[in-house]
Design a protein that fits this description.
Length: 352
């Protein structure tokens, strides 16, 4: 069994490989040298799909059988004529059945029905009645999170900063806002169900109704698919942070709290990953092996991944270009070799 970790940065991608013990690692790259590597996933056919972006040349989608040799697809996402917003970059991709979905900046969704080879604009999200009142967060107007119900692939969720969480029951044809219980950032006079700055969402693989949400205003949980959210941050030193991930084997949750919206750095200069083993009822800080002095880097919303082995591996990439990992579910941590450009995304893949 092999573990591969793809780290996307503002200046290319880097690939780490190990066996299931995750003790010795090799590093390859840079891939897509000089390009932002913004998202990646594995399609249903087993091939990998990655998104890149360049401020001059725009965005592109690539496919690979092995995470090393990549081929740009013939039809990357393009907005149809008549849209009043821009297409800047892909923020997230996820696969289900033979489809691959992509969330982009400025907030919209694209889909591919052939494993990422060709892409079409999915207008249902941007046809929402509140669309003309959507406004960006600090990182832009980004559709950064897409989830597909593992038991009902017609059911989708999308997180948009700084708008909120949306849910679709018809594979993206129509969407409804799912933000009840979340403190609002800026209230719109007409649309009272937007104005929420979600940072990340996660979902229990066995109970899709059980969801978790790292928001600008705290950590939250929903037991009914997003219809109602409740705060669940007991033990967290701060409700503010960006990434959120869940291990599919133990159901452990992982988050990286930062001091505040204003400061956006680890509290007291000590980098800690917080873990919950009881569905978010309580959180504990895990720091053994992580830098505990003068550590003022951040971890962006897509820069944490879990490999779902037993025990699970957890990987975080920082804005300072360092990559830290745990091979024992967060108990202890080590450093992957190298210091890289600002890290945007981290994805872990396991192969037999």
């Amino acid at each position: 069994m092999k573990v591969s970790v793809l780290v996307g940065t503002v200046k290319g991608g880097f690939l780490f490989r190990s066996d299931e013990n995750r003790k010795k690692w090799t590093v390859e790259g840079p891939l897509f040298k000089g390009w932002k590597v913004t998202a990646a996933t594995r399609a249903s056919d087993g091939k990998y799909v990655a998104a890149t972006a360049n401020f001059v040349y725009g965005l592109a989608i690539h496919r690979s059988p092995d995470l090393v040799e990549w081929t740009q697809v013939p039809c990357s996402p393009e907005l149809p004529e008549g849209q009043d917003f821009k297409l800047n970059e892909v923020w997230t991709m996820t696969a289900a059945d033979n489809r691959v979905y992509a969330g982009v900046d400025e907030a919209a969704m694209f889909e591919s029905e052939d494993q990422g080879e060709h892409w079409s604009f999915a207008p249902g999200l941007t046809n929402h009645p509140s669309r003309d009142k959507w406004f960006p967060g600090f990182g832009g107007l980004c559709a950064h999170s897409l989830l597909v119900d593992p038991k009902n692939h017609d059911r989708l969720w999308c997180g948009i900063s700084a708008v909120g969480v949306f849910r679709s029951e018809d594979r993206g044809e129509s969407w409804s806002c799912k933000n009840e219980g979340i403190p609002m950032i800026i209230e719109d006079q007409e649309h009272k169900d937007i104005g929420f700055c979600v940072h990340a969402i996660a979902q229990d693989p066995d109970d899709p109704q059980l969801m978790y949400r790292q928001d600008h205003k705290g950590m939250f949980r929903s037991k009914n698919g997003g219809d109602l959210w409740e705060k669940n941050e007991e033990g967290l030193p701060s409700g503010f942070g960006f990434p959120l991930a869940q291990d599919h084997t133990t159901k452990a949750l992982f988050a990286v709290p930062l001091q505040s919206d204003e400061y956006r750095m680890p509290i007291d200069g000590a980098l800690k990953v917080y873990r919950s083993q009881d569905g978010g009822d309580s959180w504990q800080g895990m720091s053994k092996g992580l830098p505990q002095e003068h550590a003022y880097m951040g971890v962006l919303r897509k820069a944490m991944a879990v490999d779902h082995l037993d025990p699970c591996g957890v990987f975080i990439g920082t804005t300072a270009g360092t990559v830290h990992y745990s091979a024992d579910g967060g108990d202890t941590w080590g450093d992957l070799p190298g210091v890289f450009p600002r890290i945007l995304t981290v994805q872990a893949f396991v192969e037999d």
